[in-house]
Automatic annotation (TrEMBL):
This is Tetratricopeptide SHNi-TPR domain-containing protein. Residues 81-120, 357-394 are annotated as: Disordered. The keyword Metal-binding does not apply. Keywords: Repeat, TPR repeat. GO terms for cellular component: nucleoplasm. Residues 164-201 form the Tetratricopeptide SHNi-TPR domain. Residues 89-108 have a biased composition (Acidic residues). PANTHER family: NUCLEAR AUTOANTIGENIC SPERM PROTEIN (PTHR15081:SF1), NUCLEAR AUTOANTIGENIC SPERM PROTEIN NASP -RELATED (PTHR15081). InterPro entries: NASP-like, Tetratricopeptide_SHNi-TPR_dom. Pfam families: SHNi-TPR. It comes from Paramecium octaurelia.
Amino acid sequence: MDQVDIETINQQARKAKELFNEGKHNEAEVMMQGVMQQALAYYKDELAVEMAEYYYMYGTIIVLKLSEQQDVFGQRTREAENNALGVQDPEDTQSENEGEQIEDGDIEEEHKVQENKPHENIEDLDDFHIAWENLEVARVILEKEVQSQKDKGVQEFKYMRNLAKVYIKLAELDQWRDKFDDAQENLQKSLQLRLQCENQEISRDIAETYFFLGNVTLYNYKEGKEEEALGFYLKALQILENHLCKLQNKEQKQITLQDAYDREHLKMSFLDNDDTKELKQVLSMLYDKVEDTNIAWKEIQTEEWKKAREEMMNKAQLIQQQQVQQQQFTQQPIQEERQIIQLGNFGNARRRVEVIEQPQQNTVAQENNQENAQEKQKDEEEPQEDASKKVKID
């Protein structure tokens, strides 16, 4: 078999992405499997740092098969696309291999979503494990590389950005299995990395992470989390507004929590380019999210809501107590469980117990013999009963 060059491998990876965007998910998955086999043959090390890119892309394709939601931040701007796997930072010098990297962007921003309900069949579970395994391998490789560079006093943003993206996808899988605490932990890790290598005022990657944190906080169904989610949403909103102001060469404005927001500046204009139009659409959706969450947060602060919740909790507690009582009433008595010691040598163990108890048994036997002798002597002394008094039944 002839050696495949890396450019051919990357072309096939891009083709797999195109197939996925066309809705040909199975074909994309099969092609990506071939890409990974060829990449492994090329690098000859499944844990090579270059392999992380392919593990991530394959895992991402599987994640998107499981996902029903599109990325709320829509298509990336050119600046955000440069943060995708394998693409150099604009501030970095161009490497000789830059043209060989997969211009991945975020596949999720272009693909057509098919309706697949989580936990619908066993194939979903298989896909989940495949996605998790590939993303976990990518995480291990990139974490090791980032730590290695840190130990050397080197900081290359490309690997940090790539690792941040892996954490995002792992968080999606955590949400898929309702592990919201784990999802929040992975999102926080992603955020910390992005805060180190992105512009905190205008980075859409950071805004995206804040938005996902807000969603996970709400999905966790824990009381009083609306205020915390609002904080994440407002941070995302501020960053996107800053980004829009930069695109329009306008002065930045401070965003604070309000009941309703003026959206005049989000109206479309013939002067808007594609990036500006897309950003305005995203901002409009995010404003809706903030306003809805703000309404929900205010509702739980009212006395009526608190009273209704207290009644609901009392009713739930009463039902639980009734269920416990009913279970105790209908439950059959459980026989005492006795531990069997040395089951394989049960006879020997039993004999040892008999030997231990033998002195005590001998004492009891002697006492019984004395009592029997006394009773026999007493019977011999008593006069025999008259035979006539005995009753005989024929």
